[in-house]
């Protein structure tokens, strides 16, 4: 799946905004939103929050986890453990990117948050590459991937599954013996 | 099979939307699930005519309402944005199915031929017409461009043999929606043994499509 499509799914997550206009409940196909009153926080999907923000119709309240202290903890935890730690949101990377791009003026210490999330992401991707490597080497038929987010799976997923398919083809069709097919991985 | 098609009951009769147990929000959700499954599954999955029909109905209904509303209203623009998003998922889903039909058409039509009476079709009527036409056009094209210039004994080509089959052994990622026990994992190499695993609700796995294909069809797991 394209990263843009993962981002599309992430845009359905809810965030809190403080509108500066008033509007009755909106009855969307996907559920009701609002009512909107100036100064009163209300939950909306990210796609709407960003649109309203771009039209300067609201102030955005960052999600609870988007905070330097909390993210430092998460990053350190991720570095300490060998396995993947649970992330505060299944779309942490996409949300960080979206919210920081469009509403960085509403998020305190935005640059530090960006770096922290990037660090966490890098650590996780390194782990993912390592485990993909051992998965291929040991020729496993099944792996459990709890706590991995959709974006992480999709950034290596296509490549990994295609590689596995090729290896499977090579093994079942032609070569009975053990080849050196995992070396290039 | 039964679980995923709770909505199927209303498919053929009239007045579908009343018979469906789904709320519009759940409907959109099941469209998105079908979209993701279709995107990641190597083969063409069963078509979901009742979902498509209801989504289109919802969109038409909403658009008709919006025509009556006054322009420039903030509310109207929010509705438009939502419609665009749903339409994107819908067309991406349908396009994805068409790509698969173009890729595997002889096998899909063959499966359709051997389908037992009463068994649901994996193609919608429109998709079936498309597949048949695509098959006929491909055959005509091959004949006109190359085959008729060949020696008579080489003028036949079997599309069924020359078009690759979907690779059901490919690996897929999935998330478990309903707990499953004793899934048999076949060994990769001769030295390994087969073993069984349990799929806990909410857990994520990387596994061969063939192993979980029935679970994808029943809606117990979601491909990701």
Automatic annotation (TrEMBL), chain A:
> Does the record bear Nucleus in its keywords?
yes
Q: Which GO terms describe its cellular component?
A: CMG complex; GINS complex
CDD domains, from UniProt? GINS_A_psf2, GINS_B_Psf2
The alphabetized UniProt keywords are: DNA replication, Nucleus
The highest taxon in the source lineage is Eukaryota
Which chain positions lie within coiled-coil regions? none
Q: Name one GO biological process term.
A: double-strand break repair via break-induced replication
Q: Where is the DNA replication complex GINS protein PSF2 N-terminal domain?
A: 2-61
- Xref: Pfam families: PSF2_N, Sld5
Cellular compartments annotated: Nucleus
Domain (GINS subunit): residue spans on this chain = 65-168
Q: What does this protein do?
A: Required for correct functioning of the GINS complex, a complex that plays an essential role in the initiation of DNA replication, and progression of DNA replication forks. GINS complex is a core component of CDC45-MCM-GINS (CMG) helicase, the molecular machine that unwinds template DNA during replication, and around which the replisome is built.
Task: Give the multimer and partner information.
Answer: Component of the GINS complex.
Family as reported in the entry's similarity comment: Belongs to the GINS2/PSF2 family.
Q: What is this protein called?
A: DNA replication complex GINS protein PSF2
State the organism of origin: Geospiza parvula (Small tree-finch)
UniProt gene name: GINS2
Automatic annotation (TrEMBL), chain B:
Instruction: Report the main location listed first in the record.
Output: nucleus
Fetch the InterPro entries from UniProt: GINS_A, GINS_bundle-like_dom_sf, GINS_Sld5, SLD5_C, Sld5_GINS_A
Q: Which family does it belong to?
A: Belongs to the GINS4/SLD5 family.
Does ATP-binding show up as a keyword for this record? no
**Coiled-coil residue spans:** none
**Pfam families in the cross-refs:** Sld5 (PF05916), SLD5_C (PF16922)
GO cellular component terms? Answer: GINS complex
UniProt key word Nucleus: yes
Task: State where the protein is found.
Answer: Chromosome; Nucleus
Provide the protein name.
Answer: DNA replication complex GINS protein SLD5
Residues in DNA replication complex GINS protein SLD5 C-terminal domain copies: 166-224
Question: What UniProt keywords are attached to this protein's entry?
Answer: Chromosome, DNA replication, Nucleus
Positions of the GINS subunit domain: 74-145
Task: Describe its function.
Answer: Required for initiation of chromosomal DNA replication. Core component of CDC45-MCM-GINS (CMG) helicase, the molecular machine that unwinds template DNA during replication, and around which the replisome is built.
Biological process annotations from GO: DNA-templated DNA replication; double-strand break repair via break-induced replication
């Amino acid at each position: 799946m394209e990263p843009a499509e993962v981002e599309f799914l992430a845009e359905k997550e809810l965030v809190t905004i403080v509108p500066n206009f008033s509007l009755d409940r909106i009855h969307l196909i996907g559920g009701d939103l609002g009512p909107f009153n100036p100064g009163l926080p209300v939950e909306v999907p990210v796609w709407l929050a960003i649109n309203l923000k771009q039209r300067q119709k609201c102030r955005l309240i960052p999600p609870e986890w988007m905070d330097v202290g909390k993210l430092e903890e998460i990053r350190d935890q991720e570095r300490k453990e060998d396995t993947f730690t649970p992330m505060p949101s299944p779309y942490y990377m996409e949300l960080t990117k979206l919210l920081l791009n469009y509403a960085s003026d509403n998020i305190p210490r935005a640059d530090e948050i960006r770096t922290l999330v990037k660090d966490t992401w890098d650590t996780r991707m390194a782990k993912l590459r390592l485990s993909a490597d051992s998965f291929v080497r040991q020729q496993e038929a099944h792996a459990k991937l709890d706590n991995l987010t959709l974006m992480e799976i999709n950034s290596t997923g296509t490549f990994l599954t295609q590689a596995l398919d090729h290896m499977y083809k090579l093994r079942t069709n032609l070569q009975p013996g053990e080849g050196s097919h995992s070396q290039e991985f | 099979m039964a679980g995923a098609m709770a909505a199927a009951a209303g498919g053929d009769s009239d007045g579908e939307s009343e018979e469906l147990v789904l709320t519009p929000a759940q409907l959109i959700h099941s469209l998105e699930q079908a979209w993701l499954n279709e995107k990641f599954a190597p083969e063409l999955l069963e078509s979901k005519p009742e979902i498509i029909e209801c989504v289109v109905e919802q969109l038409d209904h909403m658009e008709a309402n919006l025509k009556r509303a006054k322009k420039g209203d903030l509310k109207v623009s929010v509705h438009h944005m939502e419609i665009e998003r749903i339409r994107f998922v819908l067309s991406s889903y349908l396009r994805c199915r068409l790509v698969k039909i173009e890729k595997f058409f002889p096998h899909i039509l063959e499966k359709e031929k051997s389908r037992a009476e009463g068994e649901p079709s994996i193609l919608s009527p429109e998709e079936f017409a498309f597949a048949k036409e695509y098959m006929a056009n491909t055959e005509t094209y091959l004949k006109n461009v190359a085959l008729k210039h060949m020696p008579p004994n080489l003028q036949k080509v079997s599309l069924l043999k020359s078009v690759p089959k979907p690779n059901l052994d490919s690996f897929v990622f999935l998330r478990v929606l309903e707990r499953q026990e004793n899934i048999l994992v076949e060994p990769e190499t001769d030295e390994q043994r087969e073993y069984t695993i349990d799929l806990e609700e909410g857990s994520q796995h990387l596994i061969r499509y063939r192993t979980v294909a029935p679970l994808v069809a029943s809606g117990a797991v979601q491909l990701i």
